[in-house]
Specification:
Largest sheet: 4 strands, antiparallel
Helix content: 25-40%
Order of helices and strands: HHHEEEHEHEEEEEEEHHHHHH
Number of domains: 3
Shape: elongated
């Protein structure tokens, strides 16, 4: 799309000087030039370069870089492209007829596909160096007229964007925002909010962000982890949200639903199969756990979520405040290791910040682990709330 945009932009700038309007239904007369891109701000950026005295290459590069911000999911600095340049009588460069290839270059093996016939989708051969920035700057330096020719707007304090409208919200570190959708008619608790999709790493991105705006200010941004790079998000009908993720180009659809009391649900299941006196003791121990730990998927408190802990890698939840001892321990939580950890955390993970809760080995600890298994199984079908 990037190469096509540049070619269209160049053709429009140069061919647009003709005095005869197009004969189609959307005809127009261009006396100096025109810039056409599939995003209004990009077209305006290119047109501004022409107003400043630049040529078609200046306009095409400005439009392309603007698209990298305005439409990063379809045209961005992480890719590559081609540029075909036709300047029949440029005041600075004379007649120019050139083509520039700045496609991505595979770091490991540039001829991997041609040599093997295999699609380079995984492994080292799937890694390529982007060419967009280098290609556009090469075109600008070689055939443009305004590169380094305009004064830098050195106004205000360093690091303060005083010449621009401040954003309502910024993510630091970057979450790699890929899409933004307004929510209306989905659920009373979400209506009027914005949903942003993100592409970045699991630590900072690969999530939906629900953004609440009041009086022109963001009052909160709730992170909803999906554990996948999100390409696009939109509301689909009155009660559904569709999300396009990288994994096999899958579309995930969420429906509005009331938030489930996952702990109450698990306790009800356990109560139906447990002696009343034992259940009361397990429920009391569970309330102690719930002071620091959530039983909802990916909903972190002072400690990591306990949903799905049985069978999970030790220190493997999406939790930012693991002790170094827990984060580096390794292994998997099973019934035996959990039973020992609940009774004496330091004997299993020396250096952990969790304190012993005064429980002894026996039926209460086993019942607590039963509850953890039930909660994990039931949480598989739940939408993650955070």
């Amino acid at each position: 799309m990037l190469a096509r945009l540049i070619a269209v932009c160049l053709a429009a700038v140069l061919a647009g000087c003709a005095s005869t309007p197009h004969s189609g239904p959307n005809h127009g007369l261009y006396t100096r030039g025109a810039v056409a891109a599939d995003q209004r701000l990009a077209s305006q950026a290119g047109a501004r370069m022409l107003e400043l005295g630049g040529n078609a290459v200046d306009a095409a590069v400005a439009a392309s870089f603007t698209l990298s911000v305005a439409r990063p999911y379809s045209c961005g600095i992480g890719g590559g492209g081609f540029m075909v340049i036709h300047l029949p009588d440029d005041p600075t460069h004379g007649a120019v007829h050139s083509a520039i290839n700045y496609r991505e270059t595979a770091y490991v093996d540039a001829a991997y596909f041609q040599r093997t016939g295999k699609s380079s989708t995984i492994g080292g051969a799937a890694v390529a160096t982007p060419g967009t920035v280098a290609g556009l700057l090469h075109a600008l330096e070689t055939y443009g007229t305004l590169y380094s020719g305009l004064p830098f707007p050195n106004q205000g304090e360093d690091g303060r964007h005083v010449l621009h409208t401040a954003p309502l919200h910024a993510w630091l570190p970057s979450a790699g925002v890929s899409a933004l959708a307004a929510i209306d008619g989905f659920h009373p608790t979400w209506d009027g909010d914005l949903l942003a999709g993100s592409l970045s790493s699991p630590e900072h991105g690969q999530s939906l962000f629900r953004i609440r705006i009041e009086d022109g200010h963001v009052v909160f941004a709730e992170r909803i982890r999906l554990d996948a790079r999100i390409r696009y998000v939109t509301q689909w009908g009155p009660d559904r949200i569709a999300v396009l993720i990288d994994h096999r180009n899958a579309v995930v659809v969420f429906r509005a639903q009331e938030r489930v009391d996952v702990l109450g649900r698990a306790l009800a299941t356990l109560e139906a199969r447990t002696d009343a006196d034992l259940f009361a003791q397990v429920a009391q121990a569970t309330r102690t756990c719930n002071e620091c730990h959530s039983f909802e998927r990916n909903a972190q408190g002072a400690g990591p979520s306990l949903a799905g802990v049985v069978g999970r890698e030790i220190g493997g939840a999406y939790f930012d405040n693991y002790s170094s001892a827990m984060a580096s321990h390794g292994g998997v939580w099973d019934r035996e290791s959990l039973a020992r950890y609940i009774v004496d955390p330091q004997s299993v993970v020396p250096g952990t910040t969790m304190a012993a809760q005064g429980l002894e080995p026996g039926p209460v600890v086993e019942g607590l682990i039963d509850l953890l298994e039930i909660a994990g199984e039931q949480a598989e079908g739940d939408m993650p709330y955070n």
